[in-house]
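Need the bound structure for alpha-D-galactopyranose, inputs here:
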Amino acid sequence: MNDIFIDRTAPDPTRRHFLWSCAAGAAALGLARRNALAQAVEASGLGAAFKGIFHIGAAVSTFTLERQIEPELALLAREFTSLTPENCMKWQEIRPNNAEWRFGPADKLVEFGTANGMYLVGHTLVWHSQVPRNLFSDPSGAPLDRLALLARMEEHIDTLVGRYRGRIAAWDVVNEAINEGNGWRRSRWLEIIGEDFMEHAFRFAHAADPDARLLYNDYNMHNPRKRAFLLGVLRDYLDRGVPIHGIGLQGHIGLDYPDMEEWEKSIAAYASLGLEVHVTELDVDVLPNPNSPTAEVSTRGEYSEAIDPYREGLPEAVEEALAQRYRLVFEILLEHRPAVKRVTMWGLHDGISWKNNFPIRGRTNHPLLFDRDLRPKRAYFELLALAATLRS
Ligand code: GLA
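Answer from helper R.:
Posting the output first, comments after.
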């Protein structure tokens, strides 16, 4: 365990870059904000700057954990107070077939986070995606029936949640179970078990760790129809004592989508039920959306340089737009404290973000707070400056 403890006060490989970038960032922000910035930097990191307000988290890649990439681990420990595994706890990775568990990277994440006093999030127990092909069938290939699939779900949740009981603070119990048109997503879970598959997942997770905070997590949470359906489910769960404690808004957003007023309405609605709100997978896509109705039909779905304009870096104006987008998100979240418990970035730095390959493979995206050299970007300093205003 100790070999992966990061001493926050010790010099680390990213520190020089960091200080250099602080100077550059401070210059960019202008005189008025320098004092606040200096104080926040003194406090060492974004997580520290938002301490007592909400956790600042990052999703950690399996590669970072398996190879123990030192500069990335140092950055995680310095800047973040919460960790989520990007992939290594998903069913397909941690249990590629029913007989085999692969706990290695997940154990490393939990050891690292525990050693560094971080708020750990498990992701994710029940999802339609990234599952092994035979999850829904018996050894002969026949589909499982309701009871058999419930038993498999229970055993999986009991083993995984139980293994990290007392160390993982919150779980994304069910991921993406609701569709965009006001109803349950058609998935094998729904088809085989029925609509109560979700409440069973929460009950199993609660039995495995009664102290863990249990979340429902989804994307496009600004969508009013999705919100309306989910609110109905939540009211019913709360009335009947189904153990759910919070909602995860993934937060895969862009510079000009979604409608942030609708996003905020969702936050307010979940908070009004007494539920915690977690932003679980924040990133801001800066590239042209090839699926938008205004995109050239010829560019949809395929790589072209026209839809990969920032291969050499972000122009000043886009860097600033990104910073302002992050600021807006955080300002909204600050309006809703104390319901908001955490904001997690989906990835550590731009070089390893999934957004470089989605929805088009091989583009150069810049969605996070740290660039490809692990240097903090303008958006980072914008958030530091925002945090400093909360303390003045
Ligand atoms: C969803 C999932 C995440 C991740 C992202 C894309 O949001 O919840 O685990 O797979 O998609 O990387």
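Comments: Residues 1-20 have pLDDT under 50 and may be disordered. The beta strands are 55-60, 82-85, 119-126, 170-175, 213-218, 246-249, 252-254, 276-285, 340-345.
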